[in-house]
């Protein structure tokens, strides 16, 4: 059975005090309640060491990482440095990294390889623009992203990947793919994985939905047949909202 996962992506938000408070609130709540999913916080890199110190229910991951182990890459943090401080997971290929920082499929492939070499769990993001959705090219776009950056991996390594489908037109816009639209894309991703690998690997791969998921629509979205959880943006910055989404799997 594939794992259910609820992951919060804080992006470039929160002061250190706010980050510690939010992380503690979620951990404390999960200590005293039943939950049937894995929970992650993807946090700004400057908070990783602080948040990794505590004994916790919430896994802490990085929002980014650089593929080279060391060198003249001012401002970057390597996958080996992330692993060295105890980071367990890394977010790769988020639409904001692709669009704002021009990260190519080739670079993302290098990041995936470097992360897996350091035994980091990879959360790989993929998704289409509004133009690609409206032109009917959305499935081809997403599957091409997977082929270019993931499908070179041997089966044993691919088994360590979590995929997050995030329609770019539904991120930070308040728009959300309908449950049917989201599930259709998740099924297509799973079929592509089966074609590249095996049915067993496809059925065991967790595919998350990331696109304006919030308490009001979480139950309907996350209970779809091929949606295995959520990559949550804005709603992960409020403990009450994030806990309500986690409670979808209680």
From TrEMBL:
One of its GO terms (molecular function) is triose-phosphate isomerase activity. It comes from the Bacteria. Keywords: Cytoplasm, Gluconeogenesis, Glycolysis, Isomerase. GO terms for cellular component: cytosol. It is found in: Cytoplasm. Pfam families: TIM (PF00121). The active site is at residues 94, 166. GO terms for biological process: gluconeogenesis; glyceraldehyde-3-phosphate biosynthetic process; glycerol catabolic process; glycolytic process. Gene3D superfamilies: Aldolase class I (3.20.20.70). Its main location: cytoplasm. The keyword Protein biosynthesis does not apply. Coiled coil: none annotated. Substrate binds at residues 9-11, 172, 212, 233-234. It is an enzyme of class 5 (isomerase). InterPro entries: Aldolase_TIM, TIM_sf, TrioseP_Isoase_bac/euk, Triosephosphate_isomerase, Triosephosphate_isomerase_AS. Pathway: Carbohydrate degradation; glycolysis; D-glyceraldehyde 3-phosphate from glycerone phosphate: step 1/1; Carbohydrate biosynthesis; gluconeogenesis. It catalyses: D-glyceraldehyde 3-phosphate = dihydroxyacetone phosphate. PANTHER family: TRIOSEPHOSPHATE ISOMERASE (PTHR21139:SF42). Involved in the gluconeogenesis. Catalyzes stereospecifically the conversion of dihydroxyacetone phosphate (DHAP) to D-glyceraldehyde-3-phosphate (G3P). Belongs to the triosephosphate isomerase family. Homodimer. This is Triosephosphate isomerase. It comes from Brumimicrobium oceani.
């Amino acid at each position: 059975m594939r794992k259910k996962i609820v992951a919060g992506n804080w992006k470039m938000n929160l002061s250190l005090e706010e980050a510690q408070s939010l992380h503690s609130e979620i951990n404390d709540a999960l200590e005293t309640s039943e939950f049937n999913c894995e929970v992650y916080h993807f946090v700004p890199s400057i908070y990783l060491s602080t948040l990794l110190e505590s004994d916790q229910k919430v896994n802490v991951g990085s929002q980014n990482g650089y593929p080279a182990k060391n060198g003249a890459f001012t401002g970057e943090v390597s996958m080996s440095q992330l692993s060295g401080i105890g980071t367990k997971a890394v977010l790769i290929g988020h639409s904001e990294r692709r669009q704002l920082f021009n990260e190519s499929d080739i670079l993302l492939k290098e990041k995936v390889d470097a992360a897996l070499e350091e035994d980091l769990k990879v959360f790989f993001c993929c998704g289409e623009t509004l133009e690609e959705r409206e032109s009917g090219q959305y499935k081809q776009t997403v599957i091409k992203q997977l082929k270019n950056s993931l499908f070179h991996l041997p089966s044993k390594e691919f088994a360590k990947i979590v995929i997050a489908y995030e329609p770019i037109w539904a991120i930070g816009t308040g728009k959300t793919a309908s449950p049917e639209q989201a599930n259709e894309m998740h099924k297509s991703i799973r079929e592509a994985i089966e074609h590249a690998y095996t049915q067993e690997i496809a059925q065991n791969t967790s595919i998350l939905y990331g696109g304006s998921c919030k308490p009001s629509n979480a139950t309907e979205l996350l209970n779809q047949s091929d949606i295995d959880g959520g990559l949550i943006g804005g709603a992960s910055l409020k403990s009450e909202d994030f806990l309500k989404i986690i409670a979808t799997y209680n």
